[in-house]
Specification:
- This protein is of the alpha+beta class.
- The chain has a single domain, classed as Endonuclease, Chain A (3-Layer(aba) Sandwich), CATH 3.40.960.
- It is built from 3 helices and 6 strands, in the order H-E-E-E-E-E-H-E-H.
- It has a 4-stranded mixed β-sheet with strand order 1-4-5-6. A two-stranded antiparallel sheet has the order 2-3.
- A hairpin with a 4-residue loop joins strand 4 and strand 5 (about 60-65).
- The protein is globular, with a radius of gyration of 15 Å.
- Residues about 115-120 have low confidence and may be disordered.
């Protein structure tokens, strides 16, 4: 399996670090492959949507990484709750900043610098 690092423009350094970990363990992944519509306007046009960071096809699982900023975490949790209500067959997990840091330390990987998050 080849690394996708060269072909993907990650939004946040933590996403690139997570992709490196997945590559190391030869876990197939896709970056932001699908956007889920959460709300539409009166004409059926998307009003609010959510694009999880990763999809792991062998596990049929979406992963959303988050950072320590409370306002972004609340927004992501709300969107994930909406996604679960609208798409009950979709499996998604939110990985907190603390979980991510522990994972990086456990596998001896460099912790990415925490900066701004896109808040998607």
């Amino acid at each position: 399996m080849r690394s996708r690092k060269a072909t993907v423009a990650f939004v946040h350094p933590s996403e690139e670090a997570f992709a490196r970990l997945l590559d190391y363990y030869k876990i197939r992944w896709e970056y932001e492959p699908r956007t889920f519509v959460l709300q539409t306007d009166e004409n059926g046009n998307p009003k609010e949507s959510f694009t999880p960071d990763f999809y792991l096809p062998d596990y049929d699982l979406y992963i959303e990484l988050t950072v320590r900023r409370a306002n972004i975490n609340r927004r992501k949790r709300r969107k994930i709750a909406m996604l679960r209500a609208l798409y009950p067959n979709i499996q998604i997990r939110l990985m907190s900043a603390r979980d991510f840091e522990r994972l990086m330390l456990k596998y001896g990987l460099e912790r990415p610098k925490v900066g701004n998050d896109s808040g998607r």
